[in-house]
Amino acid sequence: MSQVAHADRDHALLSASGAHRWLHCTPSARLEASLPDTTSEAAKKGTLAHEIAELKLRKHFVEPMGPQKFAAAMRKFKKHELYEPEMDTHTDMYLENIQRIVHSFSSQPYITIERKVDLTTYVPESFGTSDCIIIGGKQLHVIDYKNGQGVPVPAEQNPQMMLYALGALRHYSLLYEIETVHLSIVQPKVWDEPSEWSLPVNDLLAWGESIKPIAQAAYKGEGEYVIGEHCGFCRARNTCRARVEQLLSVEEIAPLKPPLIGWDEVGEVLQRADGIVKWYNSLKEAALAHTLAGGEVEGWKAVEGRGLRQFADLDAAFAHLKANGVDEALLYERKPITAAATEKLFENKKQYKELLEDTGHVIKLPGAPTLVPVGDKRPPITNRVSPEDAFSQPANS
User: Where is this region: Disordered (predicted)?
Assistant: First the structure.
């Protein structure tokens, strides 16, 4: 069967990957459809990593593939301008996770890769492509690979994964009895272990029924624009009027009576202003692209920024300097690479861990304190000394 390149696949108006957005902001899907689609370099890297992952899974689970054919396919991927060595390591982690799931069954389960699933039972004219589906022993596993690192994507209550699972149930329920659904997201740049979540099949079906009216409203473009963290990947995020007005609005804060806001009010102020710097920079980039394309943005213009100096021919320049009495030692810097850069020298992450982390040559230092919303799963920290710690300190002699 011929494969369709990931970048060339069709996309539904109400896609599973965009469900987190259109389930919260129902008019956003129709609004996005009115705007040109753009693809970032990060998205293109994600597509390339997914194609590598698919190749590895097909080799191990779907079709016979000798070492020469596999090596030739990998060489082609490695010649891609966006290829990064860590893609090989990270997709190996994805493969190992799926092998672990497969080996957990007492007999060989059913495995399908890059399966297009029909979601129209719950979402109008919708479909999606699941990275990997495994079925056996009344268990359904839906596994997804994420190449990004900027935004952690947990499996728990993940609408994209739940829609994929509903599509898998619709397709396979006549062939397999399924009682429990397991969702798994492999995101190597964020977590060393997959994010996993399980739920009874009846709970998943009930959720599917509950979103039907929301999906209908989203398909029709009805409802109110709702601003939130789901705006981050919306095509209209820079110029959505509702988001601009929400980010710039201060009417609820300005009338505060005291000259200083209290700490009980700071949380709300931070929440309202969250994302405004990122949004401003993103809007400015979009406005620059618009002006460079010949458009106009009132009160702004594009100009040439400060240029950088570089050698026209490095070897010739250094030879000229040495001929004129400059010591060659002054022309070069020697400095050790970081632990993070050292890790990238190894194609196998386990080898790096065994050589450096397990032997104590690399230690993990605590990160600098950072303020995050209370919903963040990391434990809170404080510099305040508790009475127990204070009284346990040895007295000065």
Answer: 374-397
Type of residue found at 346: F
The residues pairing with 144 across neighbouring beta strands, listed in sequence order, are 185
Q: Supply φ then ψ for residue 197, to 5 degrees.
A: -155, 140
CA distances, 336 to each of 180, 340, 341, 342 (Å): 51, 12, 10, 10
State the virtual CA torsion across 159, 231, 27, 269 in degrees, nearest 10. 110
* Residue appearing with tokens 């597509």: 47
For residue range 339-386, list pLDDT tens digits in order.
Answer: 888 887 887 778 888 899 999 999 988 888 988 888 777 889 888 766
What single-letter DSSP state applies at residue 123?
S
Nearest of 188, 94, 96, 190 to residue 143 by alpha carbon: 94
Q: Please give the structure tokens belonging to residue 335.
A: 């400095």
Sign of CA dihedral 127, 133, 135, 139: negative
Q: Which fold has domain 6-220?
A: Lambda Exonuclease; Chain A (3.90.320)
Residue 346 contacts by C-beta under 8 Å, 6 or more apart in sequence? 89, 352, 355
Q: Are 93 and 54 in contact (CB under 8 A)?
A: no
User: What 3-state class would DSSP assign to 360?
Assistant: coil
pLDDT band at 244 (very low <50, low <70, confident <90, very high): confident
Pair type for strands 139-145 and 180-186: parallel
- Do 47 and 77 form a contact (C-beta atoms < 8 A)? no
User: What are the pLDDT digits (tens) for 301-324?
Assistant: 999 988 889 999 999 999 999 999
Domain boundaries defined on the chain: 6-220, 229-255+265-292
